Every structure is written in structure tokens, then in C-alpha cells.
Amino acid sequence: MIHNSESEASSPLVSLLILHLNGLEDTCSCLRSAANEGYTHKEILLLDNGSDPSEYKELQRLYASSLILLRNERNRGFAAGNNQLAKFASGKYLLLLNNDTEVTPGCLHTLVSFMEAHDNVAVCQPKIRSLMHRNQFDYAGACGGFLDRFGYPFTRGRVFETVEVDTGQYDAPVEIHWASGACFLIRTEVWKQEGGFDERFFSYMEEIDLCCRLRRSGHSVMSIPSALVYHKGGQVWGKRPFTKRFHEHRNNLLMVLKNVPDTQLVTRLPLRLLLEFLSVPYYVCRGELRCACAVLCTLGAFTVLMPLHLFQRQKRAFVLHTGRVCIVFDYFFRRRKTFASITQDGLE
Questions:
Q1: In this structure, is residue 314 part of a structural domain?
Q2: How far apart are CA 131 and CA 137, in angstroms?
């Protein structure tokens, strides 16, 4: 645990939450960058989430005396793992950080300073660039996330498979729909009030669901591009396309079912399911047969899970402020490939 000299009054304690699932080199690199980025009043909590026992032993050898180290015998998922770590955190803020990220100097200070000055903001994320192509935005987070009218996520800097080069075009801080789980800062009090992540999501879309709940409660979510993190990406599910696509598609449908208002759900959900079905021949034409099978399995799983989620949405009336755009239509038919071109007609 790291508790250094900066006064609590000027620098509130921040708890860094990092999950490790194999990839020891990435985790060690992440920990080095986090320790050296400059903000000293922090603690680091690391969860080995079902890695090979040899990797956990090496983590114990290297870091047992300098951070809080926990272990699960099996992978409980990104959502449950972060919920587990947060229970041991002491900070005023939680920084969720993927183990394949590199934190740049001054990043944490920038995020904390912004949060301290804006009490209505519950979550903020830095600009996230690709660690492998450092002048490009990161696929997962870029400069902040948005949702179209059917619940498809897209970001300032990445729409579907089009990733933009960062030329400063999205450097203005803005309110966003969701912050990337690759790296975001959240008030611990707010995290506890909302109950953290919904663990049924396992991995993918849990951060979007959380941000929807926060916005429903009147909080703001912000992108602060003056803070910078690099993200490698694809280290857990990148080599398992079926599992990755299954969780992406299933969880996005559940997020829509859970958060879209009743008045919109009746018309939008059937159209969204049609778009999901149309993605099957799209994957087949691309030769991605496992992804096509994943979508078919998604539709089956969603049919089974839908009654339970419909029942639960009656208990909590979430509201999702969806935009006017449909990125499927804009991207594939209008050939608008960038965030700026897609949103040029307006975004709610």
C-alpha cells in the first residue's frame, strides 16, 4: 500500500483497482507506470482473478509488501472482481485501471483536481490512446463513450472498426454517456450508493450500465482529455472471438433492456433485435463464423434472460438518454466513419 507525503486536505486518497488474469509482463508494466505517475497519495489494490498459480506466486514475491494483493481461484469476471476489490478500498476515489494500461505522468492529478472542483460529476475518464499505435485512439475508450438510439456504443475517436488518429480533434472536456472501464475515476461514495457493477454482466458493458444508473440519479459523466492513458487491449478475450462477441452482444442487449424507458422499449427493442439478426450474415460474409455463431447464441440467451430483466426493470425505472443517431445506418449506409461526421446532425 502506498500512503506518502502529500496532505489529505489537498490530495485526497485514491484507491487504484487493478485485475490480473495472466499476462504478468503487462501487469508489472502497469504497476510501474501507476506507481511513478506522480500522484503520491494513493493505494494500489490488485486482484489475481484466476491466473495460473505460478503468476500469483510471482506477484506475491514482487508486490506483497507494497500493495493490497487478493486472489480468486477462478475468473469471477471484470464486474465481480472490481466489486470485490472496492470493498477493501479506503480512498475517496476509485480509479479502475486495466492491467494492460500505461498511466502517463500527471494523469491522476488532473482527474482528481477536476472531480474536486465539480461536485456534480460522479465519473470521469482520461483520453485513452492505443499502446501499440500510440498516435491513435484506443478501441475501448478513446475520448469518451456515447450511445445511439438503439443502444449501440461508440466513442469520440472510434466507431465500430474505424479508429481515428488523435490530432487533438476531441481535446475539449465534454459530458459523455459512459466512461470506459479501461480507466475511469469514480467517487467511492457514489460507487457504494449504486452498488458498483451489476455482476450479471460478467465482462463488457458493465461500465455503460453503471453510467446509465448514475445519469438517472442526476450525476454527470465526463471526458477529461488533458489526462492521458495508453491501453493495449484485447489481452483477456482477444484470442477467444466467440466468447468476446457473445458477451458484447448479449450484455449490450441486456443493457438496453435494463435502461431504455418503457415508452421507447416497445419500438426500439424489436428493431434492435432485427439488427442483431442481420449481423449474422455480416459476420458470415467476413468469414468470421465463430462471431456469427456467437450472435445466434446471444439471441437464444437473451430470450431466456429477458423475462427476469423485464421483472427487475419494474423495480428500478432507469432512464437512458439516447441520441438521435443510428450508427449502423450512418456507418454502413451513409458511410460516416468518424464521431464528428456521425454527430454533425446533432446528438442528445
A1: yes
A2: 9
SS3 percent helix, strand, coil of the chain, rounded to 5, is 40, 20, 40
Same domain (yes/no): 34, 139: yes
Evaluate if residue 123 carries a pLDDT over 70: yes
Decide if 3 is inside a domain. Answer: no
Indicate the pTM of the whole model.
0.92
Residue 347 domain flag? no
Domains: count for the chain:
2
Residue 28 CB neighbours (<10 A): 16
Range of the domain at 300: 241-342
- Sign of the CA dihedral with 7 first, then 11, 12, and 17 last: negative
4-25 per-position pLDDT tens digit: 444 444 799 999 999 999 999 9
> Do 81 and 209 lie in a common domain?
yes
Say how far apart CA 75 and CA 343 lie, in whole Å.
38
Among candidates 185, 165, 262, which has minimal Cα distance to 17? Answer: 185
pLDDT tens-digit readout, 143-154: 999 999 899 999
Q: What is the dihedral of CA 306, 307, 308, 310, to 10 degrees?
A: 80
Are 167 and 276 within one domain? Answer: no
Task: For residue range 37-65, list pLDDT tens digits in order.
Answer: 999 999 999 999 999 999 999 999 999 88
Angle (nearest 5°) at CA 194 between 192 and 197: 90
* One domain for residues 28 and 106: yes
Reading phi first (left if > 0) and then psi (alpha if -120 to 50, else beta), residue 78 is in alpha
